[in-house]
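Try this one yourself first.
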């Protein structure tokens, strides 16, 4: 990277794709079913956004929930039109 930063950045997507393929192979998953995310909050957001929401569904969290994770659960709760859903769910337990 130090020798030629412009060249390094032009191939970032290729290197990320190669890393994703290696990780998928290690996990025994398909590359298409594997994603690299910048952090845990980003990963949880991807999962929450892919979960079908329905009225009356229950969302359970632990008592040590990370803020971004709880906010994502709150968004999912509002999508499901849960009565009394608020952005900071009360943990179970």
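Now uncover the answer:
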């Amino acid at each position: 990277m130090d020798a030629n930063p412009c060249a390094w950045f032009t191939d970032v997507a290729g290197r990320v794709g190669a890393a994703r393929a290696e990780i998928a192979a290690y996990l025994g998953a398909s590359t298409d079913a594997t994603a690299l995310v910048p952090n845990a909050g980003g990963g949880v957001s991807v999962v929450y956004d892919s979960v079908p929401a329905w009225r009356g569904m229950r969302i359970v969290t632990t008592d040590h929930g990370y803020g971004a994770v709880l906010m994502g659960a709150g968004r999912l709760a509002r999508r499901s039109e849960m009565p009394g859903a608020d952005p900071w769910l009360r943990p179970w337990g």
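Discussion: DSSP finds four helices and no strands in the chain. The mean pLDDT is 81.
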